[in-house]
TrEMBL record:
Residues annotated as domain STAS: 13-109
Domain of life, per lineage: Bacteria
Signal peptide span: none
Protein name as catalogued: Anti-anti-sigma factor
Pfam families assigned: STAS_2
Length: 109
């Protein structure tokens, strides 16, 4: 499956969905704000079932970015599977912790 990617020189971050070992991984990097989220949604309106999230490159996560992350991974939780959270940075973890969202994800083994 081709990589779904939203990136632009004027955007402070990017979001992509990649397939790794039969898992769809939502990868975020840089500053994830409303502009980055909107650019991704514009190019990719249909959300695939996400089984893992990689936030290793996130330097800033806005409320819009967190809301996007929670909505994109909701179908997996509805199916009874917590998305695996891997590579979370301190700034991203702090926002998730303040919002009470860490329990929506399974820590990576």
């Amino acid at each position: 499956m081709p990589e779904l990617r939203c990136a632009g020189k004027s955007l402070p971050g990017f979001i992509s969905v990649e397939v790794e070992d039969d898992q769809r991984v939502l990868r975020m990097s840089g500053e994830i704000d409303a502009e980055v989220v909107d650019a991704f949604r514009e190019k990719h309106p249909a959300a695939p079932l996400i089984t893992a999230v990689d936030l290793a490159g996130v330097t800033f996560l806005s409320s819009a970015g967190l809301s996007f992350l929670i909505r994109q991974t909701h179908p997996g939780r509805q199916a009874g599977r917590l998305p695996v959270l891997r590579g979370v940075t301190r700034p991203a973890h702090r926002v998730m912790q303040i919002a009470g969202a860490t329990g929506l994800f399974q820590p990576a083994a």
